[in-house]
Design a protein that fits this description.
The structure holds two protein chains of two kinds. Chain A is mostly beta strands. Helices cover 0% and strands 53% of the residues of chain A. Chain A contains no helices and eleven strands. In chain A, strands 2, 4, 5, 9, 10 and 11 form a six-stranded mixed β-sheet that branches. In chain A, strands 1-3-8-7-6 form a five-stranded antiparallel β-sheet, with no helix packed on it. In chain A, a hairpin with a 2-residue loop joins strand 6 and strand 7. Chain A starts with a strand and ends with a strand. Chain B is mostly beta strands. In chain B, strands 2, 4, 5, 6, 9, 10 and 11 form a seven-stranded mixed β-sheet that branches. Classes of the chains: A mainly beta, B mainly beta.
Chain lengths: 112, 116
């Protein structure tokens, strides 16, 4: 069973602090990793993608990938109330497989 | 707007009725995906198309579900003899090629189905 695991939360972070969201995946063949943000009642929107070990930064967001530990994380710096949402980790298995396998998502609350 | 478009946005139907949803992908995208999402869960893969060919179907896709993409452009998802357990958000997504880091999935706004 190929799985993507996330802590469902809620994760409560004060405004202006760093929010750290974590995700583990079971299949070592996984090649591409994505973070989506989903507001209540809305569809997922892509925040970042990463495929190589290390960090990738985009504005206030940093994705971190460690394939040896099968671990991917998302850091949100200077958290804003508008960052309050569910964050979905998604994994592409590669090797001819298609589509994405999603975790259940982490509900993030930024406290003003 | 050149994003993924889904219709209708909401559908309420009685148990046993048939429903059909439509998805218009981003025009240059070859891949089209259907997902289902229930409250508190991440999206679950149902099926995907490369152009008009349906290449993979999930075990979640019972024989009451059928999807088509007849001309490799828009797609329809039909649910026959709906059951209350079919109540969910049905999400369509498209991508240029497979879901790689440089060809991510872009989602439509979804169709929320309520079966009474």
């Amino acid at each position: 069973q190929k799985e993507v695991e996330q802590n469902s939360g809620p994760l409560s972070v004060p405004e202006g602090a760093i929010a750290s969201l974590n995700c583990t995946y079971s299949d070592r063949g996984s090649q591409s990793f994505f973070w989506y943000r989903q507001y209540s009642g809305k569809s997922p929107e892509l925040i970042m993608s990463i495929y190589s070990n290390g960090d990738k930064e985009d504005g206030r967001f940093t994705a971190q990938l460690n394939k040896a530990s099968q671990y991917v994380s998302l850091l949100i710096r200077d958290s804003q109330p508008s960052d309050s949402a569910t964050y979905l980790c998604a994994v592409n298995l590669g090797g001819g497989a298609d589509g994405l396998t999603f975790g259940k998502g982490t509900h993030l609350i930024i406290q003003p | 707007d050149t994003g993924v478009s889904q219709n209708p946005r909401h559908k309420i139907t009685k148990r046993g009725q048939n429903v059909t949803f439509r998805c218009d992908p981003i025009s240059e995208h070859n891949r089209l995906y259907w997902y289902r999402q229930t409250l508190g869960q991440g999206p679950e893969f149902l099926t995907y198309f490369q152009n008009e060919a349906q290449l993979e179907k999930s075990r979640l896709l019972s024989d009451r579900f059928s999807a088509e993409r007849p001309k490799g452009s828009f797609s329809t998802l039909e649910i026959q003899r709906t059951e209350q357990g079919d109540s969910a958000m049905y999400l369509c997504a498209s991508s240029l090629v497979g879901a790689t880091y440089n060809s991510p999935l872009h989602f439509g706004n979804g169709t929320r189905l309520t079966v009474t």
